[in-house]
Structure formats: structure tokens, C-alpha cells
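Researcher: Let's run the pair from yesterday's discussion. Sequence first, then C-alpha cells, for each.
Model: Starting with the first of the pair.
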Amino acid sequence: MTIRPIRLIGDPVLRTPCDPIRKVTDGTRALVQDLLDTVDDEGRAGVAANQIGVNLRAFSWNLEEKGGIGYILNPVIVELSEEVQLDDEGCLSVPGLFFPRARSAYARCVGMDLEGEEIELAGEGLTARLIQHEVGHLDGALYIDGLERSVKKRALRQIRETL
């Protein structure tokens, strides 16, 4: 069991778009196991590969509503609702800070598993927020990028003071 350290804001890997996984290898399997082990820690809902320093398109989740722990390779968001939810959001890479962030109320992504079979992760509420948050990581974005202007200004100040 390997719980990998989480990269923090300021680390360039978090701002680099991740490469697609072109072939499932032993390295891919080890990455998935590390993602599953790392997300299986108290208070964690999701972990993107670049948060553990790997520049590949994969993330894991830990959601009771989705049966616990899972993963997806090469996720692509294929559906977002027009309805928006505004809720506090946090990030392991920006520890201890939460800010109100608007996200689509429903999201659906598709990707593949280690056998190359297509899988889907979809839902409302926390699941929708997680999909958008983790795919954002894989695109080189952090949740603070989408904050409302005045909230973002406050967030950046708190990040500078805290980290």
C-alpha cells in the first residue's frame, strides 16, 4: 500500500496538462494502485495523477454514493447540466482552504479501465463537483481559477498567507 504525497499549489506539475494514457502497462497499473491507496485516506474524495506527480490522465475517487473507491483513465467530460450549484470547494493541493465555487449540478465523464473497457462516472452534487474538479486538474487547472473575482482575490491572499 502506497499513499503518495500530494503536490501543493506552486508545483508546476499541477499547471501542466496531463498526457493521455496510450497503452496500459505495469506502470499504469502501479499508478492506479497508488491513486486508489492515496484516495483511501480520511477526508479525501478524489486524487488526480498530477497531484501525486504523474503527468498522465487518470484520477481516483472515494464516494460512498458511487460504491466507494474507483478510478478512471483518460476521462473526458461529455455532459454538463446548465443548472449550476454553488458550494464551498477545497483541494488537497490547496490544503485547509475552502471557497464558494460554481459548478454544473450534473456531470458525466467517460474513460476506460485497466482492461481498456469504456467506463462512465456520472452524477449530481458531490459526484458532479468531483468530476469537474479532477478533470480540471488533468487539464492543468486548479479550482481557484474559476472562483468569482472578489472570492479569488481573497483566496489568493489567504493562500499566500497560509502556504
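Model: Moving on to the second of the pair.
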Amino acid sequence: MPEQIDSISLKILKILQRRARIPNVDLARQVGLAPSAVLERVRKLESQGFIDGYEVRLNPERFSRGLVAFILARIRKLEDEAPVGRRLAALGGVQEVHYIAGGDAFLVKVRVEGTRELGRFIREDIAAIRDVTSTRTSVVLSTYKETANLPIEQDEA
């Protein structure tokens, strides 16, 4: 870690990853500090960039987004990485875009209603990006773990 933080701040981060909406009083009780001290620490962690934001995880099934697919996209020239990456990221249904090493340039995670929508997405949305030369798609059959949580250990303090 570029900046060192103490074990109490690490404990706060671990708790917030599990329960971002935990009341400050409960958080303070769990780490053994006064609520005002915990609030000050959380604000400091936010300002120092340890906390990027807070999100609610929605049930994708309730929004007709039950199909997850990973699309490997190859591009014409590697110099076009940034503009192509931004265009991929702007497409509806795209949850993640990663520039990767290897023969393909991008790994794109999408959530769509089903295979018909996935096919349309690849044929129309991705194909409309002129510098994408080919794609390979893997459809997720089952998910056993999906998280944005980072492993935080006490010895990192």
C-alpha cells in the first residue's frame, strides 16, 4: 500500500466492504471507538482514496439481466486501445472492460436478458466499433462467486 493505515482503519474498511450501510454507531461499537472518531476516520479514508464509493447490489434477474457473458475483443491496432476501450465501456449492459495481455485486447463482461440479446449486442453494438476486428464469447452457466471486495489482512497495517 502506498500510504500506511492502522489496524483500526483496516478493520473499518473490512466491515464497510461487508455492510456499507452499517450505522456509524454500530461501526464504532465494533471497532471500539467513539462514533465521532469513526466518522472522522471514514471521511479521511474517503479523502485519501481508500474508499472509492458505495454501491447497492441489485438482483440482475429482477431487471431481466440474468445472462452473463465474457467477450474477448481483438482490435486492429494496439494504439487504438484507449478510444476503443472507452467505446466498449459506454455500451449498455457492459459491466466491466479490461485491457488484457495476449492475442486479444479486451475482456468485456456483459449482462443481458438472454442469448438473443447477446447475439444482437455482438452483431450490432460491438460490430459498430470499427477498430474491433473479431470477438470470442463465453457464456456463464453458473456463478459461484462474484464480488468487488478486496482481501484486506490485518498485517497490511
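Researcher: Give me one sentence on the second I can quote.
Model: The first strand starts at residue 67 and ends at 75.
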